[in-house]
Amino acid sequence: MSDPVYQRVRQNPKFQALVQKRGRLALVLSLIVLVSYYALMMAVAFAPDALRTPIGQGSAISIGFPIAAVIIVISWLLTGVYSYFANGEFEDLNNQIVAESER
Amino acid sequence: MSKAFLSALAAALLAAGPALAAGDMGATAKQAINPTAIAMFVAFVGLTLAITYWAAKRTRTASDFYTAGGGISGFQNGLAIAGDYMSAATLLGLSSMVYLTGFDGVAYIVSFFVGWPIILFLMAERLRNLGRFTFADIASYRLDQSKVRTFAAMGSLTVVCCYLVVQMVGAGQLIKLLFGLDYAIAVVLVGVLMVIYVTFGGMIATTWVQIIKACLMLGGGLLLLLLVLVQFGFSLETIAAKATAAHKAGVKIMGPGALLADPVSTVSMSLGLVFGTSALPHIMMRFFTVPNAKEARKSVFVASGLIGAFFLVVAILGMAAISIVGTDPKFFEGGVVGGKLIGGNNMPIMHLAQAMGGDLLLGFMSAVAFATILAVVAGLALAGASSIAHDLYARVIMKGKASEAQEIRVSKASSLALGVIGVVLGILFEKQNVAFLVGLTFGIAASANFPVLILSMYWKGLTTRGALWGGLAGLISAVTLVILSKTVWVAVIGYAQPIFPYEHPALFSMSLAFLVTIVVSKLDSSARAKAEIAAYEDQYVRSQTGIGAAAASAH
Questions:
Q1: What is the mean pLDDT of residues B328-336?
Q2: Would you call A30 and B546 a contact, using CB atoms and an 8 Å cutoff?
Q3: Of B48, B202, B329, B466, which residue is least crowded by CB atoms under 10 Å?
Q4: What is the mean pLDDT of residues B261-273?
């Protein structure tokens, strides 16, 4: 037996919209993080020389270091992007859904 | 996540050849007593005990005890998660991997980080919306309460116990080394403080211990970074140039080395780290301490920012240590540069602290390392106690009829018991190579706990039978593969060649667990299975919206 409150929420088109939009955002951001991370790891395994290229003429720093740093920084910024939308627009939508479910 | 590094480090050492191979932490010598370290550590303990006293007066209900009443803010929880996740191994192990291998260490650092955004995108809000005190709450939400909850609780307890022993052994050796205390005294001291924090102060005290520790660790890291940057004229280029000039491997440290050359091994390692981390009971428990999903998301944003920043600092410090520590005879045994580092291979950052700020900074960093261990074991003990008292005692044995006072009493007794077990095993394992426990911790978390957890949240078709068979398949295969791997088959039993060639079982055992769970669930056509599948719809609404989730104590 489904709880009537949950049943009501399921039929609310706002719920469908929330789940779809937030789910898509989470999926896209996860893919960006995982693809860039595993691309680095595959480069480590299969194209190590590419990562040894210096960042500039005569520089001691190889390109691998900034790439690793950029993956960390971008992954973190994406947690900011997700939180911005999930705690802003989607949270408002969620609050409306919760309020409407109580009627 | 503590000694995952040490095992990884061991692999690094073997890969780097005999030139770099040196003793592990098991062979550390007792150092002279460092008064600065002890004074700073006593100050930390005094402060945390005062907080525990304050927290004890605020810990009345089971919810206060397990989750601080859900009253921790997102920012505070972010700091506490960072404090929980950045163990002594992050500070010592990661910096030393960069010191030894250069770029490979940095690639490891990235591997330890990328789990966090994934936890946020895929798990944080569902964890918060479905769970109350433990991850078994979520796994058993619509499945058979006693069976699935018992299995999930046992999985948590196994992970907690393995990890606790790893931490205890690491603590004893580290403290012996840094403070000049006896191994056994150090282990007992850690055990006693852990039990005091947890039994009296519950989650409130544990959270604040982790917050203070995170601030100390970040502060210490930044101070060290500043001193290093001043030394090198704020030029990363100079750090890199001097490192390549000073390191035996020369310019090779700027690119991938032997550590990550095998893609299968690398993928298995990274799956274990990413998904094992996200199924560690003490990490998941932190998501129940905030009032709602919004604060849960905020806490991951804060935590991953702090963890990421700290990891970048650690990478720079490791590179700087190559030229500062690696060329100074006073940090090598017998003064032979390139020989054995005093205190073993986990010490570069401590030597760097000594080089940059003398005994004062070394004392400070030592105290930070000790505080770090305390914060991690307190979180572990609390997670273990909640599995015993909330899952096994209150839900399974008493079928939800235990009073709150009884449940709290059982929690406190459990944390005491865990403290005793941790101390006894910690002392028994002093001379053992505990790297296999790290493989077990992450293997079991990723293979027995994670598949059931993620499928219970995402897959409608999961049934009790599928969860039990799949969890069991993951558990047995993870344990078997660890036994057949180098860490047990060669290091403990003493055979020349491991049967399973990789150190991390996750790629195989986790895949098997998913496969078995899905196939058995699909084949399950019992009436109960149909009811469980039907119950997904309501669980789904709650996981997305939080309707019906336990509210914060402020209400």
A1: 89
A2: no
A3: B329
A4: 84
Q: Closest Cα to residue B545, out of A87, A3, A97, A22?
A: A97
Q: Of B307, B306, B288, B309, which Cα lies nearest the Cα of B124?
A: B288
Give pLDDT tens digits for A45-60: 888 899 999 998 889 9
Alpha helices in B180-261 (DSSP H): 183-231, 236-246
The band of B178, judged by pLDDT with boundaries at 50, 70 and 90, is confident
Task: Report helix, strand and coil shares of chain B as percent, to nearest 5.
Answer: 75, 0, 20
Is the model more confident about B136 or about B439?
A: B136
Top mean-pLDDT range of B159-163, B262-266, B429-433: B159-163
Do residues B140 and B392 touch, judged by C-beta distance below 8 A? no
pTM, two decimal places: 0.89
The rounded distance, in Å, linking the Cα atoms of B247 and B132 is 51
Q: Distance between CA B488 and CA B502 in Å, rounded? A: 12
Nearest by CB to B103, which of A2, A6, A62? A62
Nearest residue to B382 (alpha-carbon basis) of B94, B55, B93, B90: B55
Give the mutation candidate from A44, A85, A90, A103 for the B interface (greatest B CB count, under 10 A).
A44
Q: Which token pair is B36? A: 């600065």
Q: Given B237, B254, B256, which is nearest A44 (Cβ)?
A: B256
Q: Phi then psi for A62, rounded to 5 degrees?
A: -90, 165
Provide the pLDDT for residue B539.
Answer: 93
CA A83 to chain B, closest CA, distance in angstroms equals: 6
Give the CA-trace dihedral at B52, B285, B89, B419, to 10 degrees. 50
Taking the C-alpha atoms of residue B64 and residue B50, their distance in angstroms, rounded to an integer, is 18
Instruction: Report ipTM (2 d.p.).
Output: 0.94
Instruction: Please give the pLDDT value at position B335.
Output: 85
Find the distance separating the first CA and the last CA of chain B, reported in whole Å.
Answer: 35
Q: What is the mean pLDDT of residues B109-115?
A: 89
> Can you list the domains of chain B with their CATH numbers?
31-431 (1.20.1730.10)
Q: Which residues, in sequence order, are bridge partners of residue B553?
A: none
Subunit contact B237:A60, Cβ cutoff 8 A: yes
Identify the bridge partners of residue B10 per DSSP, sorted by sequence position.
Answer: none
Residue with tokens 């910096």: B95
Residue B544 predicted with pLDDT over 50? yes
Q: What is the pLDDT of residue B31?
A: 62
What phi-psi label fits residue B34: left (phi over 0), alpha (psi between -120 and 50 degrees) or beta?
A: beta
What is the pLDDT confidence band of residue B21, given thresholds at 50, 70 and 90? very low
Is A72 close to B312, i.e. CB distance below 8 A?
yes
**Residue A51 and residue B244: Cβ atoms within 8 Å?**
no
Q: How far is A51 from chain B (nearest CA, A)?
A: 6
Q: Does A80 touch chain B (CB under 8 A)?
A: yes
Closest CA to B201 of B353, B396, B26, B412: B412
